[in-house]
Task: structure prediction
Amino acid sequence: MPVKSTGQAIAEALALAMDRDENVFLAGEGIGTSIHVNPHLPTFGLLERFGPRRVRDTPVSEAAIAGLAVGASCMGLRPVVEIMFFPFITLASDMLVNHAAKLRYLSGGLSAFPLTVRVKSGVFSAGCQHSHHLEAWLAHAPGLKVAYPSNPADAKGLLLSAIFDPDPVVVVEDMPLYWSIHGEVPEGDARVPLGQARVAREGGDATLATYGGAVHVALAAAEALAAEGVSLEVIDLRSLVPLDTAAVFASVRKTGRFLALHDATRFCGFGAELCATVAEACFGELTSPPCRIAAPDIPVPFTPAQEAFYKPSADQVTQAVRRMVRG
Amino acid sequence: MQRQPLDRDQRIALLADMLLIRAFEERIVQMAHEKGRLPGMQITCMGQEAVAAGVVRALAPDDVVVTNHRSHGHLLARGVDPGALMAEIMGKQDGLNRGKSGTLHLADPSRNVLMTSTVVGAAPPLAVGAAFAQHYRGEANATCVFFGDGAAAEGSVHEAMNLAAVWRLPVLFVCESNCWAGAQAHKEHCPIGEIARRAGSYAMPGVMADGNAVEQVHDAARDLLGHVRAGRGPALLECHTYRMRGHGEHDPQHYVDKAELALWAERDPIALHAEALRRAGLLEPDAAERLRQIATAAVDAAVAFADASPYPPAAEALDHLYVNPLPPLAKEG
Ligand SMILES: Cc1ncc(C[n+]2csc(CCOP(=O)(O)OP(=O)(O)O)c2C)c(N)n1
Ligand SMILES: [Mg+2]
Result:
């Protein structure tokens, strides 16, 4: 299997979807002509390949971009729109939360909105108006689906599933993975179904569920713990909505311990949902209380040491697991 | 409206402001390419100095400034301490905002630089709020908001202008129309071409100025501020200029026509103004060079100050979120 960067894998999914289905088009800010010359950016080269009819640079207008996706999808197109950075999804949120998520329901099932929003996440020294992990917001809006890949094969496979899914899907792309994480990527239309978690590392002492870039933090922690004889099972959720609770429960029933990890802040973060779900379903099998490892409840700080302070680390994970396993 | 002609000192002050901004931004550009020197992306207003100097010098000290991601010039023209600004850009403890802002979200309330938003199109509604407060209290001051031509495509800018107009709020909307929004050329996002012409749809005055001609910018700003201060509602000033660098220093400008760039380089706002002063007999042959040296020395001092400042402690990340911090959550067990 060819090895690709995460960004290249996403680009491959976009190109494949456009090749397969004339109804697929792309729109967003700087997705055609970009300030960047970087082959690891997912939209790199797509304007040249598919032309300006299908690869649309928009003005700086997030509400219109999201509205475009809602309206065009209701007409039977399959829009794939990009919101440049996660905090700017707030500008698109009326169209996503009040419209994409609700209009099918309001139509009594008459309409469908097969749209995809790609949004770039990550912490990259630009401060909190460029970095804010809002996935729990999105997951809290019934009617939206939310995928959050951690590696090239999943980034490609989940995006393909999102594009051909009949419902609105937001795919959160951890931008630093575009160039930092390379991996084998199956060729062709290799979809990864939404709602199917993956055991990223097997283990028997505790279960940790996470998604996106945090998967790599969890894996580093699992490696360090293994050296101490503690075996951590890491579950990469891949999508938050739908959520593969079966995979999580099966693992928790094996280990008796549960941790949730994410780069988003702790209070009302997605980890709260995970811990509650696990506590409800596996209460009797848990040998210790579920535990959240998350960012502190502050905006993403700018200055480097504070930025590092914000981001949950492998050290925090190993400490939490040790506390849990050793009592 | 009768406006006082500028005297020699005022005209030279405009030059000095632009030289300081230029020297500061040149240093940012230089340091941006020294590995590990500055955290994050570096966005400068190189080439747009006349807008900052011309508009800000037209403001009174009590007027309020709200700005965007390309704000260094606005702050420096406002008299913000270059050392504190540089330290902030470096993320240092003695920075304007104790390293919480970095280059993108600067605020200096002591100079009435009320706030900055790097969310494109957010500054105009924020400015409407500031102007409302001025109006509500019956103050004679105005709020000046800077935004880009690209930002004018955000719905928030329309809402802000409309509300300011129906409520006759004292806002001077200043569009820095620098021919680009990221890699997107002006005509790709602005069907009317001139954003100033949109003023008509809010029944407010709209003026297009040559953004590289500092006195023209300054005069237009003074005239429009006269209108705003007279309680006649907001006004829109569009300054036609050019972004001489990439969007930020991470942008190699590969999509920019080099001939166009060269044409604008010919119209450098500092050279144009220095030449005008020389022709008017107001600038001795070596005076511009002396002013440039003063600006460079100020920037040297700013860098030295910033370098000497420590980084704020990591745990200070938890501070400054609330005026009245939340009580700690009870711990289990
Ligand atoms: C809401 C939002 N969308 C996108 C961006 C990313 N972005 C930052 S600056 C910029 C271009 C802005 O162009 P313009 O308003 O003309 O200002 P200029 O950079 O030219 O000064 C974009 C798209 C952003 N910061 N905020
Ligand atoms: Mg612009």
Residues B 148-150, 178, 180-181 surround magnesium ion (ligand 2) (CB under 6 Å). The mean pLDDT of chain B is 97.
